[in-house]
Specification:
143 residues; mainly alpha; 9 helices; globular
C-alpha cells in the first residue's frame, strides 16, 4: 500500500510542527483534502520543466476553483498521494531525480510499451502495475 509518511514528506505536509503518528492521520488529511500547494509540489518534482503537467492531474478550470478553497478534493488528494508514493519508490531504486524521471517517462516492456507515468495517472490499478515493475527492478527480475 502507500507509504504515507514518505508521500507526506515529499508533498511537504509532514513537518516537524505536525508529524503524522499514524497512516490514519494522513487518511484524515486526504478526506479533508490536501493543500492545493501539494499539486504544485508533486508537479514540480515529477516534471519541473513542464508547468502544465499539473493539469494532467487536475484540470485547469478545477485548479482555479480549488485555489479559492485552498484544498484539493479527496479524490484529487488520492491521485497526488499516488504520484508521490510512486515517486518515492522509484527514487529509492534509481537514486537520482533525473533517472527517476527517465524511468517514469520511458516506455517499459513490462507495461506493454506504455510509459509508467501515464499508467499511474490512469487509476489505482495502473499504479499497482507500476509498483510491480518497480518491485521487480528492486529485486533484479525486471526486463
Amino acid at each position: 500500500m502507500y507509504q504515507f509518511r514518505e508521500a507526506a514528506k515529499i508533498l511537504g505536509v509532514d513537518k516537524p510542527s505536525h508529524r503524522f503518528v499514524s497512516d490514519v492521520q494522513y487518511l484524515t488529511l486526504i478526506d479533508k483534502g490536501l493543500p492545493i500547494k501539494c499539486l504544485d509540489v508533486i508537479s514540480n518534482t515529477i516534471c519541473p520543466a513542464d508547468h502544465s503537467f499539473k493539469y494532467r492531474i487536475v484540470s485547469k478550470a478545477t485548479v482555479a476553483r480549488r485555489k479559492i478553497r485552498q484544498r484539493l478534493s479527496p479524490a484529487q488528494s488520492v491521485v497526488v498521494t499516488r504520484l508521490a508514493s510512486i515517486w518515492d519508490i522509484a527514487l529509492r531504486i534509481w537514486k537520482s531525480p533525473e533517472q527517476t524521471r527517465d524511468f517514469l517517462y520511458r516506455p517499459h516492456p513490462l507495461l506493454e510499451g506504455r510509459r509508467p507515468i501515464d499508467i499511474v495517472l490512469e487509476n489505482e490499478i495502473g499504479a499497482e502495475l507500476v509498483k510491480d515493475v518497480l518491485g521487480r527492478l528492486e529485486n533484479g527480475s525486471a526486463v
